[in-house]
Amino acid sequence: MHDELTKVDILKMKEELESLYARMPELRENVRVTRGFGDLSENDEYKTAKREINAVKRRTRYLENMIKTAVVIDTAGEEGKTALFDFIHIAYPEPDVESEEWERRTVRVVTTLRNDVFNDCISKESPVGRALLGRAAGEVVTVSPEGRPSYLIKIESFEKGEDDPDLPIAAY
After folding, report:
1. Is the CATH number 3.10.50.30 carried by domain 87-159?
2. Taking Cα atoms as reference points, which of 122, 142, 5, 139 lies closest to residue 80?
3. What does each C-alpha distance from 144 to 121, 123, 155, 158 come to in angstroms?
């Protein structure tokens, strides 16, 4: 399976890889030094140094694999339709509330690598992201999360966005 990423996603991953590669000599030296602190079964400094270098190695392998298998996608969508990085103003009924009132918020559909629901950046692979992409203002779409009840979202309006290099990539 290939990950669909933007040119900016790949650039950001390459930048992170460079910083991880630059840290490796220091981390290796830290492991070497802490190994000399005595009995390894009781040497917390050594265990901590090993955990840190192993975490960096895992992240490095992950980023290298993501870059190697990435398929670069275009972020421009069809005219009048929502696309990646657009600011989409949505409304949805509040759960468990018997009211005609709909809650409103603005979300941005992003690549999976930059998913951050706490900042309203929704993955294009998520049920909400899939429901919103390629739709027009005024449409009411059904979101169908796996194993949960479906619900409606109304696209009130949207503004075209672009791939923002300031959106961070997810740590893990």
Report:
1. yes
2. 139
3. 19, 15, 16, 22
Q: How far is CA 28 from CA 20, 24, 55, 85, in A?
A: 12, 6, 13, 40
Q: What is the pTM of this model?
A: 0.75
Pairing label, strands 4-5, 140-143: unpaired
- Rounded CA-CA distance 5/11 in Å is 10
- How many whole angstroms separate alpha carbon 122 and alpha carbon 116? 6
Of 124, 56, 151, the residue nearest 48 (C-alpha): 56
Look at domain 4-72 and name its CATH class: mainly alpha
Give the span between the Cα atoms of 83 and 124, in whole angstroms. 9
B/e letters for 77-107, b = 16+ CB within 10 Å, e = fewer, are: beeeebbbbbebbbebbeeeeeeeeeeeeeb
**Lowest mean per-residue pLDDT among 60-64, 102-106, 129-133:** 102-106
Angle, in degrees to the nearest 10, between helices 44-69 and 7-35: 160
Give the pair of three-digit tokens for residue 32. 């070497």
The better pLDDT of the pair 129, 101 is held by 129
